[in-house]
Amino acid sequence: MKRRRTTLLCLAALLGAALTALPAQQAGADEVEQVRNGGFGTTADPWWTSNVTAGLSDGRLCADVPGGTVNRWDSAVGQDAITLVKGSSYRFSFSASGVPEGHAVRAVVGLGVSPYDTWYEATPVLDGSGDAYTYTFTSPVDSTQGQVAFQVGGSADPWRFCLDDVSLLGGVPPEVYRPDTGPRVRVNQVAYLPAGPKNATLVTDATAKLPWRLKNGAGKTVAHGWSVPRGTDASSGQNVHSIDFGGYRTRGTGFTLVADGETSRPFDIGTAAYERLRLDAVKYYYTQRSGIAIRDDLRPGYGRAAGHVDVAPNRGDSAVPCQPGVCDYTLDVTGGWYDAGDHGKYVVNGGIATWELLSTYERSLLARTGDPAGLGDGTLAIPESGNRVPDILDEARWELDFLLRMQVPDGQPLAGMAHHKIHDERWTGLPLLPGDDPQKRELHPPTTTATLNLAATAAQAARLYRPYDKAFAAKALAAARKAFAAALAHPQVYADPNDGTGGGAYNDEDATDEFYWAAAELYLSTGEKQFADRVLNSPAHTADIFVPNGFDWSRTAAAGRLDLATVPNRLPGRDKVRGSVVRGADTYLATLAAQPYGMPYAPDGNRYDWGSSHQVLNNAVVIATAYDLTGASKYRAGAVQSMDYVLGRNALNVSYVTGYGEVNSHHQHSRWYAHELDPNLPDPPPGTLAGGANSGIQDPYAQGKLQGCVGQFCYIDDIQSWSTNETAINWNAALARLADFVADQGQRTSGGGPGAR
Question: Structure pTM?
Fold first, then answer.
């Protein structure tokens, strides 16, 4: 789980053009106005401006915004000394126009002094008519040092911003957010395999069974049956029924399911969608690349300049210094993937993402239904296509080369360890193309967990790249050995949990699982007894690691266990390893059967975790691995069915994968997939997985909409909701792994479902 914090970044201390400051009006009774002179009757007092030429015009405050700025906060208008009361609801409203139209303004309510937290923000795209905008939110703090600000920078060309009727009214009733969940029949909006499970969930007040009908694209009923009442679903708070139509196997498009007077969103029965998704989920990584221009001929609509290659305004990644006091050298850490919606690059998250892509390829070589050609050379349309190396290995190599560059050089303290991360000195705002990022870049201290991520992925790479590039394979293995030795010498060097300015902290204070994972990969690639002994003596080797939340960047023991179970080796007691994976799969299958929405995920206390959509998928990967180990059809069916949740069969009736399903997530938090904020930028590419429901709702936007949300309902498809709706490389790796498995099952002509779920 990521722990991120946005900041206001429009600081009164930096503003040289402050007009006047008046005492704040104290909050008291209901319906108290906190903004002074929001109508700009005869003066602009007490509003301040920064890097604009402003004045009154026809009863409005108008500002001429210069062109050539990079960040939203480079030009701004605002007011300080705003009082807010924790738990009180506020209506934030204003009228604004922009000429020429199409410019976005970042309207924020936040802390006017360090650390400049943002408590609420909205980013409307303005036209020239002076439209009114109204938002309601609940203050998370008590403060007399609040600030209302309108950030208008970041435009290449000058424009004119006008503002009027600004209000922050306290004591208003809280806004009740009711998501549009569409028809009450919830289906996989993309496709069901012809020879696979087909299940749906009906939301209804009925307690007795109900008839259902399956209609084809022509509207003809082709199957019918009765629903199974399931009672109240804890994950959503809804009364639901299950519908099983797995007996129908005819291919087609435009099917709908009808029950209780409702008609589902359309779906296909076929395999083509999963063939596309297998590719799109991995194609996502090319547009996440740092250090290379993204070619528009390869990704139409996504072409952009290279980011962080020492071309102004970038500081660049070719000679990045450490944070003050950490080291006295610089490193060339160009390349790699941007981690999520920001411009940071993190070894711990890069490690688990790279492992899962490499394991997707390794499974294709080893599994009974594996298809090495599925992600082979020429399949992904990347610059390296046509080089006789599988494209998925080429893509993973882009990140592996970066991971190797993060290793501390010989002759330095902590030589052989890996720096935890590299990112901007301070948080940047949205939108911001990678090539336009002006922030100073910094290396953060080495950690044991990052070092072991490097050791694990480099060791795995050593065996997989050997047929294609023996020199790189040898280099990777040498780096893995060096990293593992360095971690043994420094076994408890952990990331600072407060190191979250400019990038996520990714703190983890237990490296037991990373030691196990790294030892497993080194053993699988070398066969050496020293690494086998490390595996066998690790407490993670016999621990119950298949927990409800599954595996993730901070829970990596499963990566080692799954590979020990599937990659040929002579580890003593290997049958027990394989048996533990099957038992883990049985646990997840039992969870799936008990969940009316049919997913192998039921977190403790119904507290959905950050990135829950990928945790559903990773639990399904365990089930899929059990199928590879045993050939038992129940595991195949359970893994395939798990895809339904992320493709629409959920309480919100939304597909969490961009471009897949009639209603799908496409406003993920990102600085360059930011069409919601800038019409000149694209939405995320097809095959991008949204983080999904997160009970923590850590961002201000979600807090303003989702207070009191239950499980699955803790999600909103808005670019401002970085805690529920970010994109991330490890999340997409889980999608890639399971999509590849399901696509392989689509080649089968037999199979079945686990019954009504």
Answer: 0.90
